[in-house]
């Protein structure tokens, strides 16, 4: 059967139109159908709330937790003599060192050392001394803490620091070099029944320091939000282990040929006991025995147990 060209084109056009209608109908059916429900993601497990960290409220001088009734009090540094060359030039045994929260010993002129006993509650300061003059080595450590510096006299270098940093409002017992304002100290004399030079007979106490503070008009309220040294965190029972170091049963500090300090570990108290050498070289004059109860042993005078960064720990060599 023959199909004319005109008929072929006409039938092809009709077929194409029919396919188009079918395609459109199919699309319309797909668009009109109900969409499938989305897949629901699993519910994540709730994240537990972190346990709140207890507040850090450490004693500025010891790093230990402050007592509930502790005062926001300014640090008080009292200069204490440490001369022990002859029977007359002998300040030992000193008083009040074991009650200090921190005890600083620094070498000064002539190979000798001097102490600065630090407290932070004026009502808890016992009789302390013999008081001696101030030195800039100690003052430079106290200035950042705005501590009260208590002494009798001072070196010219110390006064220069007082002048340059305008620290006279917190300096009691200073000198007027460079026209520096001064505040007088309050103290008392006690020879302790011994024939010693007058510079080894001056003592003070918390009550007397309070009188000097009141006279100078010094505000002793001070809140510290950090500690003097970086102590281990008391909240977690941590210790500053000295990596690679053996446990120290005894520590010796040699300041000079005639001045040494010892720290001996006491297993029963878990503390280092501090003592000072009495004499390691011949000197002029005869040194008298230490006062009763001072704890003289093996040529040393025991000062007591210092509560500083060498104390604490359940074994030697561990420090808080």
Uncertain residue ranges: 19-30, 279-320
How much helical structure, as a percent, in the residues?
10-25%
CATH topology: YerB-like fold
Structural class comes to: alpha+beta
Q: How would you sum up the global shape?
A: elongated
Largest sheet: 5 strands, mixed
**What's the CATH C level?**
Alpha Beta
The CATH fourth-level homologous superfamily:
YerB-like
Radius of gyration using CA atoms only: 39 Å
Number of domains: 1
Number of strands: 14
Provide the spatial order of strands within the biggest beta sheet.
2-3-1-4-5
- Average pLDDT works out at 79
Termini separation comes to 113 Å
Q: What share of the residues does DSSP label as strand, in percent?
A: 15-25%
General description of the model:
α2 runs parallel beside α3. The protein has 320 residues and is an alpha+beta fold. It contains 4 helices and 14 strands. The protein has one domain (76-319): YerB-like fold (3-Layer(bba) Sandwich), CATH 3.50.90. 17% of the residues lie in helices and 18% in strands. The model is unreliable at 19-30 and 279-320 (pLDDT under 50). The strands form 4 sheets. A 5-stranded mixed sheet has the order 2-3-1-4-5, with helices on both faces. It has a 5-stranded antiparallel sheet with strand order 9-10-11-13-12, with no helix packed on it. The chain has a two-stranded antiparallel ribbon with strand order 6-7.
